[in-house]
Write the structure tokens for this entry.
Amino acid sequence: MTAQMPTGSAKGTVLNFNLSPKEITRITDRLIANGMAIQDRVAAQSSPTFANVVVPLAMRENEQSSEYYLITFLQNVSTDKDVRDASTEAEERLNAFEIESSMREDVYAVVRAVFNNASEMDKLGAEDRRLIEKMELSYRRNGLALDKEKRERLGSIKKHLSELETRFSRNVNEGDGFETFTREELDGLVDDFFEGRETKVVDGVKKYVVTTKYPDIVPVMMKATSETTRRRMLYAEETRCPENIPLLQEAVKLRLEVAQLLGYRTHAEYKLELSMAKDPEAVLAFEKDLRQRLDVLADKEIKEIEALKRADKKAAGEKYDGLFSWDFRYYSNMVKERKHNINDDEVKEYFPMKEVTRGILEIYQTMLGLRFVKVEDAAVWHPEVELYEVWEAAGKKFTGHFYLDLFPRADKYNHAAVWPIRPGFVRADGTHEFPVAAMVANFPKPTASKPALLKHSDAVTLLHELGHVLHSICSSTKWARFHGTATEGDFVESPSQMLENWGWEPSVLQKFAVHYKTGKPIPAELVKRLVAAKNEGAGLFNLRQVFFGLFDMSIHHTEDPNVDVKKNFLKLRQEISRFENDSDDTWGTSTFGHMMGGYDAGYYGYMWSLVFSADMFESRFIKEGVENTTTGMDYRREILLPGGSRDAMISLEHFLGRKPNNKAFLRSIGLESH
């Protein structure tokens, strides 16, 4: 058993999440009024300098970002519909204001004057210089070089795009689907799946309600022996939020118009200018090379899966009719179970949520030289939410706060993600503002007879998302716009992906994976089987990631304003993922939140950043030891601390001692590196 997490009362400035709709509106009004006043004063400067132009603009970002993040975050977690509505409206208004601000000619004129003043620029340190360079580039990318008519059109489009994205996300959060099944129709699911589950009587028959939230749909897709059940469940998921298809369709068209107004051929060209990849051709070459390599693995995996389904059909006296999207998880899991004797229901008995969370937090404390203290009776947005303080392990230096909101509930954000509620920065008086981050997830809840138990993949997700939390907490930058995860979009996942590897290390697993009844560590033999199964199905699994990336590029690297998002999604999924679509009409792209949540022309980044994460892990942590605290502190100093205050490539080269390469990445997904 792991040691008890220390507890205490809150330290530092704790945020107030108990806001009424009126208070959210008042804060929004104040942020807009204050922002406008600051920009007016800056624009009026007759002798523009870094101190009287750039500093006030950046200090506004510093000081107002916390309230912005807080009030817009509530739409994802509040149980009060009026609060969620007010939060959504606040985000739309604030985003509209930021779009107007980014297109003010008078402000750009004084920023440009400073940027062109060699004597001013020569006096600046590295982060200050990066600040004005990024600020000036941002104004240009927002159309300040265009004529008035085109600028006005650009501003109008950007505001509307922001509204479309907010509505899309809200629809996904509140648009859960469900199906009802008899116990027989859910054959294959373990008993605790049914404990406490809502039931309905349909035509005189007791049926269980299964929602499209992760803890419901994933076990059904992996374990339900009935193909009809799996098909119905996937259909419920892929016919959610039909109102989102026209929203995405319109957004794709408008993004292309924005890009072309600014002189780019496609939205992807515009978006990737600021990435590590730099251009769409590099992304497409990466994805296509990866697809060719993975197809070789997938050919073998498909044959195994096909043989299993043929045998099932023969036993049932039915004709084999192909492999469909609802077969993927079920038969992939079956292959893993049979080849490696891995049963997720057996494995999860060694991953009780409480122990896993505590164990992972202890790993990060040791690795990064930190100390976490759980705050009792904290002011939070829901009783299940936990608040932690972060301190330096050595001495009494306070570092920040983070919140954990880990279980599903109605109208809550549907997946797993981290919000940087308050970035760290240096205040005007030279003191440091402490960062705050919130992790939101949807892990299985406890039942009447068992605590919350995680699948091994859930534990890996927890490692990943807490990695984002620690990126925010361990970052230390002068300006909020560079804090934490504010890096290039195709690097931002890399630090967290690197930390997923701890979930596959036997010495690490035996520290926190303990049986929920006996407290005994996970058997070494079971860990060995888990690790052996790591890359089982890697071809098909990673082809799904390639599919998402290529779908993204198909709708964002095109000059066709009417590209059919629904048709492209279904066509490419079947071609690349190797499983047939439902013959009935579905629209899985309506809940592909990444396309309306900042990952447009950026989904490739999940695979792209794995190149760097694998290189960091193999080259430093495998070589020097996963529990080597010197390596951990190097990682904290060179990768986490700078945030976006320098190019990610510089951080990687400092940590690796050389330029990164893809050899470790190819090995990590079961491919040779030559």
Summary: The longest helix spans residues 280-315. Residues 638 and 654 are 6 Å apart (CA to CA). The chain has a mean pLDDT of 95. The chain is about 55% helix and 10% strand.
